[in-house]
């Protein structure tokens, strides 16, 4: 597939949200949509994509493709304006980019939220809706959150606030109480596999990526656009060879050389998640696939050892090759298996 991801504001489709969108369309038809929403779910669940789909629907309901979803033709004026980040009635509050430090700021500041409230107070260009998206509400500092609360307490007519959050329980209780929460449930693996294959990903890579994505289609797309499939494959080889005491040189090269920096987080997370899943499977089913003879206690010890070592290694900037060798040693020791 293409290395460049389609931004959420420009994505025309979304999978696994048909029931949710049917409910939203029904509420829109009844004029029962609230002014404040929390779209909750893990990173890559599709929160931003859904937010832009809601925004398009509220700004131009007559252009929607049907009566049950939020689909809209890409040729429509509203779709094109939002896709280009140029719609005058949509404001996105996010962490600003710091040119001096060449990275985004660590939080959404009160100044950004004040701009949002000023935007909401103005008359909409089309005389209708105004949409403010906070991506993500988790990034707001305390002053920003308090400023947003004022907008939620006295929302201007026609204003809708869409707050994206991976940890809605940490938002101010007063913000939560003034918003309707929508939880984005995990999407079925087979749907994610079909999505990836439609984007040109091979069947084998699509399955590996979907398994790792754990129901998050956006995260799956991010993995597919980079070296996610290769990183997951290397992690599976590591798990096999680490148990056997096999050679790890090619694996180390794969996450240390060209592309290694982007592969490493996926490689590490796949190993840790696989050990966690295996421990759970051994405890509930009596055995874990790929870990013959290992009981739940051993697998839990392996998960704890590898997780702790990976964290310490990154904090101390230990050589990647040495870190991987140490992870294999600790995993094998925890599983009480002898090197071949």
Description:
This protein is of the alpha/beta class and 340 residues long. The protein folds into two domains: 176 residues, 3-Layer(aba) Sandwich (Rossmann fold), CATH 3.40.50.300; 108 residues. 52% of the residues lie in helices and 9% in strands. It has 14 helices and seven strands. The strands form two sheets. The chain has a five-stranded parallel β-sheet, sandwiched between helices. Helix 8 packs across helix 9, helix 8 packs across helix 10 and helix 10 packs across helix 12. It is elongated. It starts with 17 loop residues before the first helix and ends in a 6-residue tail after the last helix. The relative contact order is 0.10.
């Amino acid at each position: 597939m293409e290395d460049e991801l389609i931004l959420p504001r420009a994505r025309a489709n979304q999978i696994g949200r048909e029931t949710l969108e049917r409910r939203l369309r029904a509420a829109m038809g009844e004029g029962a949509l609230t002014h404040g929403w929390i779209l909750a779910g893990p990173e890559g669940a599709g929160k931003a994509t859904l937010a832009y789909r809601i925004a398009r629907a509220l700004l131009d309901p007559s252009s929607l493709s049907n009566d049950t979803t939020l689909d809209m033709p890409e040729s429509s004026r509203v779709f094109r304006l939002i896709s280009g980040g140029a719609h005058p009635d949509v404001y996105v509050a996010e962490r600003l980019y710091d040119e001096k430090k060449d990275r985004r700021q660590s939080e959404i500041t009160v100044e950004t939220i004040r701009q949002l409230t000023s935007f909401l107070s103005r008359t909409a260009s089309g005389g209708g809706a105004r949409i403010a998206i906070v991506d993500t509400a988790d990034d707001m500092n305390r002053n920003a959150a308090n400023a947003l609360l004022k907008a939620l307490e006295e929302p201007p007519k026609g204003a809708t606030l869409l707050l994206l959050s991976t940890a809605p329980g940490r938002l101010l209780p007063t913000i939560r109480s003034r918003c309707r929460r929508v939880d984005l449930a995990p999407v079925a693996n087979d749907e994610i596999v079909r999505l990836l294959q439609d984007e040109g990903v091979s069947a084998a890579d699509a399955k590996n990526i979907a398994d790792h994505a754990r129901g998050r289609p956006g995260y799956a797309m991010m993995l597919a656009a980079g070296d996610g499939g290769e990183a997951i494959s290397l992690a599976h080889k590591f798990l096999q060879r680490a148990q056997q005491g096999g050679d790890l040189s090619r694996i180390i090269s794969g996450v240390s050389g060209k592309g290694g920096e982007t592969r490493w987080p996926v490689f590490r997370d796949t190993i840790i998640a696989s050990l966690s899943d295996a421990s759970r499977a051994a405890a509930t089913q009596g055995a874990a696939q790929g870990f013959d003879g290992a009981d739940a206690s051993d697998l839990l010890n392996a998960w704890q050892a590898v997780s702790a070592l990976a964290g310490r290694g990154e904090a101390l900037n230990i050589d990647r090759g040495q870190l991987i060798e140490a992870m294999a040693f600790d995993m094998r020791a925890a599983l009480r298996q002898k090197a071949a």
